[in-house]
Amino acid sequence: MDSDYFEKRMRELEYFHSLRCLPGTWIVLRLDGRGFTKFTARAKFERPFDGRFQEYMRTAAQSLLEELQGLYVFTESDEISIVFPPQWDLFDREVEKLISISASIASVAFALASQLAVQFDSRIWLSASQEQVIDYFRWRQTDTTRCALNGWCHWTLLKEGLQPNQATAQLTGKTLTYKQALLQERGIEFDTLPYWQRYGTGFYWETYEKTGYNPHLQRHETTQRRRMRMQDELPIGEAYGEFIAALLAKSLV
Ligand SMILES: Nc1nc2c(ncn2[C@@H]2O[C@H](COP(=O)(O)OP(=O)(O)OP(=O)(O)O)[C@@H](O)[C@H]2O)c(=O)[nH]1
Ligand SMILES: [Mg+2]
């Protein structure tokens, strides 16, 4: 067989390899821990929230921001969202690369930090609109609060001896007020629980000035440096939208 022809035929079957994220769009990668309900139970992490688990998630989020040079990364529960500006062109915006490499980075960072074998999946969210990116992050933050309240109620009822299906039945269709009251009756004030549990944690780049001595010129000089900043008390609601808008705007100047 003609080897060039053979090579071409084989390459053609790498069917998705030419897929790229649309030019000029904002890209968000969302990563999620695979089977973390079972994994966190096996590894005996505290329920519904464990500070150590959160540290490992933060390590994975920071690693993504660093390796992929994103604008902003947000983490809550077992998920991480990272946003890239329209002009970002790492890996030529190849879909296969973005998904597989981001999942590898998060899995390895979490696994090395925790010494536990884990996997993350990854998906791509695209939009040409800056407003939609803001909505995206507000959506994930709202989901964080909803899941935190449900998680606290669920595990509180289980600790009282209910079976998972009984706890689910008791909570299904109930209002936020009902759920908050359920916790309050048991001495848990939802509004005073740690911020990161209710609203997530963000990381972004900030610039700062560093003064050092230049031995060649024999004088002190001030240079602009960049460092990663953690925000574990994120603004909420509209203020969170403004916070995201300001970060996105910085990438377009
Ligand atoms: N114990 C404990 N569990 C946590 C913590 N943070 C997240 N989780 C659990 O992680 C799970 C995340 O849920 P999902 O992503 O919907 O479910 P999953 O089991 O990971 O399944 P897939 O994502 O579909 O693979 C939930 O069961 C959470 O309770 C934590 O701090 N402590
Ligand atoms: Mg998961």
TrEMBL record:
Which ranges of the sequence are coiled-coil?
none
Q: Which UniProt keywords apply?
A: GTP-binding, Magnesium, Metal-binding, Nucleotide-binding, Nucleotidyltransferase, Transferase, tRNA processing
Asked if the Swiss-Prot or TrEMBL record annotates the protein with the keyword Metal-binding, the reply is yes
Which residue intervals define the domain Thg1 C-terminal in the entry? 132-227
Q: Which Pfam families match?
A: Thg1, Thg1C
Q: Give the Gene Ontology MF terms in alphabetical order.
A: GTP binding; magnesium ion binding; tRNA guanylyltransferase activity
| EC number per UniProt | 2.7.7.79
- Transferase is among the record's keywords: yes
What Gene Ontology terms for biological process does this UniProt record contain?
Answer: tRNA modification
The EC class name is transferase
Requisite cofactors: Mg(2+)
What InterPro entries does the record point to?
Thg1_C_dom, tRNAHis_GuaTrfase_cat, tRNAHis_GuaTrfase_Thg1, tRNAHis_GuaTrfase_Thg1_sf
Which family does the record claim for this protein? Belongs to the tRNA(His) guanylyltransferase family.
Protein name, UniProt field:
tRNA(His) guanylyltransferase
Origin species, per record, is Dictyobacter kobayashii
